[in-house]
Amino acid sequence: MNKIRDFENDLRATLADVAASAEEPPGLAERLVTGATRSRTPHRAHVWLGRRWVPPALAAAAVAVVAVATVATVTSIQADRPTRPAHPTPTPSATPPTTSAAPTSSAPATSGAQSSAPPATRTATDWDIDGDGRPDHAHVVFLGGGGPNNWDLVVDMTSLGQQVVPFTGEVALPGSNNVTIPGSVDADHDGHAEIFVMDQSGASTQSWTIFKLVGRHIVHVTAASQPVDLKVGGSVTHLDGFRCTRSTLITTSETTGPPDYTTVSFRRTSYAWDGARLQQTSQQEGTFKGTTAAGVACGDLPQLAPYQPYPPQTSTTNSPPPAASGRWTDSTLLITAHSLGAVTRGMTLAQAKAAAGTSLSSVGDSIERPADHTLTGSTTLQFSWGATCFDASRSGSGPGTTVASPAGVRLGDPVSRIAAAYGASAKPFTADPTWTGAGNIPAGIIVQQGDGVLLFVGSTPDGRGGTITSIRGAADAFHASSVFC
Amino acid sequence: MADDAGFAAFVRANSGSLFKTAYLLTGNADRAEELLQDTLARLYPRWDRVLAADTPLAYVRRCVANAFVNSRRRRSTQDVSLHCLPDLPDEANLAERVADRGLLWQLLGSLPDRQRAALVMRYFHDQPDAQIAAAIGCRSATVRSLISRGIATMRAEAAAAVEQAARETSQGTQS
């Protein structure tokens, strides 16, 4: 029945056939040259890092992500139409922004609209919109009505001052997930972080659009002469997302259906960056066997924009948190799968103490905490010896260190924010029922993060409800759920 | 310091060839381009080292394979397989079904990354064990094992697919 003769020759011929049919995409060579010479910094820093040792330099970079975590949650929405800053006749695409000569309060006194944006020589860190190495800030303002241009994007840059760009989004309403900014990452590696704005939110799918600095102005990115519209999220039968490479942005749309939901139809569209335009370069359509898996893979952007309630949040500041050192004495810290602040996986105890910026003491079971237990208020920070697991926990309601994941989920947040931030990648996690040792092994919600996991523990007995009382980062679920974490 | 002109000339001259390698490894054009971008961005700052190699193109090709194995090992987001397995019962001629190179291509895509990389380097680039070992970061003996297991897996899967198709065709005929 099986007449496989000379299987190896068949394989050789198959590879030759496939290679012959794999035509080089138009413009590939130029994109490769541009991508390699424009940015020497790898997009995904962890690719270059050993599993057991993360240089402190990464910790410093990771700390900058705290800006994303916090800024993404301080979007302000004003129900009353404010006085719109003067700007030209609204044009949805590539509208020249208004520019305020006055720098924001966080900008140095010497900076302002007349400054030039620093030259882009490497990939910008998150929220470094003007490329000067310092985090910038953006928020959206609802102007009222259904549009067009019923929203303003207000961008405060440390080197270029404030600019305002109108755009059209869905009407702000109570009970809706309102327009917000899920993040700012350097998607095209031009040295300036792009601003991603969620401008519509349906039952399962969100629409995101992009703004970026071109020259000295923030403009709305377009595709086919329209403001770019990226679909994100989905349900059982469809899933959308996008991915950033060094010089392209690739959208993916997948659909599946009965009877077995295992045949997935997909459409994948590639775009090349051309200033403020995304030029379509190719499109693929086909099917595959499996399950829908499209998602957002673009720097530190979340899978879905976090829930943005109405009325406006009561945030008292529109500024990002001060540039954090990652020391555990800071008021805000970032926790990842392999770091808590500047303390990163694989550090020796001496290195960890230096990175934490405070003396540490052992509390048994190889767990280290700040010696001064009042330092972090109601928040407890700790890591296991050898820095294999990091834990930030909240007890009581008093003030304490703010700890946030890269997607902006913080200690004390409702557990529901985890799903909003991470989408389908957030999975229920059940504690090992066979554990008979001491201590509590937490259940909760686990999220795969690169080469590790984040485990969120809720205040309810199953760990999946109420408010987040603990966030743990570790190489795997075993370590994250270990009593020794 | 990289020689920008030399680097650009190399890429322009070899992008097509490198793209084919990357395509065979990744299974689709977008991922192939992404793999090449990552690899070349990594090599660019030390381009002198590439040029010092006996065969720069072979050196870069090995780096592509190495980047493929390592990047997929560490990838955080789940990828979709673009290899479409046709519905087997629809195939009329089973012998042709086995010979169908689409099936082999699909089976190749289902292999673990290191096995796939080893097979591509061996059966497309005719690389010896030592070169493949250097590319994917293992010993020569491991390369032989990877290739052997990869071939065995593909043969077994192909046989299983044919048997399943035969059963389903038979059932369809009886009903």
Please, could you describe this protein's structure?
The complex is a heterodimer of chains A (about 475) and B (about 180). Chain A is mainly beta. Chain A has seven helices and 28 strands. In chain A, the strands form four sheets. In chain A, strands 5, 6, 7, 8, 9, 10, 11, 12, 13, 14, 15 and 16 form a twelve-stranded mixed β-sheet that branches. In chain A, strands 20-21-22-23-28-27-26-25 form an eight-stranded antiparallel β-sheet. A four-stranded antiparallel β-sheet of chain A has the order 1-4-3-2, with no helix packed on it. The longest helix of chain A is centred in the first third of the chain and has 15 residues, at about 5-20. The termini of chain A are far apart. Residues about 40-120 and about 310-325 of chain A have low confidence and may be disordered. By secondary structure, chain B is mainly α. Chain B has nine helices and no strands. In chain B, helix 7 runs antiparallel to helix 8. Chain B is elongated. Chain B starts with a helix and ends with a helix. Mean pLDDT of chain B is about 80; it is low at about 75-95.
